[in-house]
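Co-fold these.
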Amino acid sequence: EVQLVESGGGLVHPGGSLRLSCAASGFTFNNYAMNWVRQAPGKGLEWVSGISGTGHTAYYADSVKGRFTISRDNSKNTVFLQLNSLRAEDTAVYYCAKSSIVVLVPGGYFDPWGQGTLVTVSS
Amino acid sequence: EIVLTQSPGSLSLSPGERVTLSCRASQTVSSNYLAWYQQRPGQAPRLLIYAASTRATGIPDRFSGSGSGTDFTLTISRLEPEDFAVYYCQLFGDSPPYSFGQGTKLEIK
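Predicted complex below.
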């Protein structure tokens, strides 16, 4: 069974940093791109970032470019999202999601999703 | 960037009814790259449909997708109590960002 388990969320002050992790199991990890998607309280879904199966290619939403960094450790079946210079508007549940293919362009559909980890940016 | 607009924003229906949800793209897109997701309260999204009309593994056949060009639809033939949720369309192909529609909330009347 494919499983994705996020961790690392919490309360952080504006301007602070956080590192999210997503541990994957049940599939050959380096054969699939991975993505992060966030959902602000009571709002819709926003794609944040994606990384190819090899880790050589990454893309970001304009709203996080230059502040967030995605990476992966294929030896540990884990994808990370480093969140820097956090703002109140970054408050959201962050989901990791497995892509259906190894590359990012063209992309694949997202299946499955983890249960999410909550990031709260507040003073 | 292609924008996806879903309609209606919300609607109230009764179990057993049929419903069609709409997702419109701001420009022509390949149907190969259109997906639908369901999100129940307090849960992560779940893939329902990909390539506009292919049901994901384990999805009941009361869910169907169709469309091409700029107009896509998700139809639920007979609503079950567990179908009352928020539904999102997504464009995942060509190039990032992999945008989502704003969602349609299906409520029990």
